[in-house]
Amino acid sequence: MVRSIALLALMEAQRHGRWGASFHGFRVQALRQGPARGCAALTEVSLSVSIGKAVVASFSVTANYASAMEPNA
């Protein structure tokens, strides 16, 4: 479930700039780095997963905006 939340967080951060959620003590936070939508073909998103105060995973992902766009948008 945390993996699904992390994937959703990446897509939502690409669209809206940031996104976060929690599930059974895990906290998932994603933040878009770089220009606003439409200014560049690629965007970088920082993702962090923690449980309590301990960071379990933290990394950056580079993707294109097309992967975050909804169909018919």
Describe the fold and architecture.
- This protein is of the alpha+beta class and 73 residues long.
- It is built from 1 helix and 4 strands.
- The protein has a 4-stranded antiparallel sheet with strand order 1-2-3-4, with helices on one face.
- The longest helix is centred in the N-terminal third of the chain and has 15 residues.
- 14% of the residues are buried.
- The model has no long low-confidence stretch (mean pLDDT 81).
Q: Briefly, what is this?
A:
The protein has 73 residues and is of the alpha+beta class. The chain is built from 1 helix and 4 strands, in the order αββββ. The N and C termini lie far apart (27 Å).
Mean pLDDT across every amino acid position = 81
Largest sheet: 4 strands, antiparallel
CA(first)-CA(last) distance: 27 Å
Q: Give the helix tally.
A: 1
Radius of gyration: 12 Å
The shape, in one word, is: elongated
Count every beta strand, where a strand is a DSSP E run of 2 or more residues.
4
Strand content: over 45%
Keywords, separated by commas or semicolons:
single chain, 73 residues, alpha+beta, four-stranded antiparallel β-sheet, 4 strands, elongated
Spell out the blueprint of helices and strands.
Blueprint (H helix, E strand, L loop, with lengths): L1 H15 L1 E6 L2 E8 L8 E10 L2 E11 L9
Antiparallel strand pairs: 1-2, 2-3, 3-4
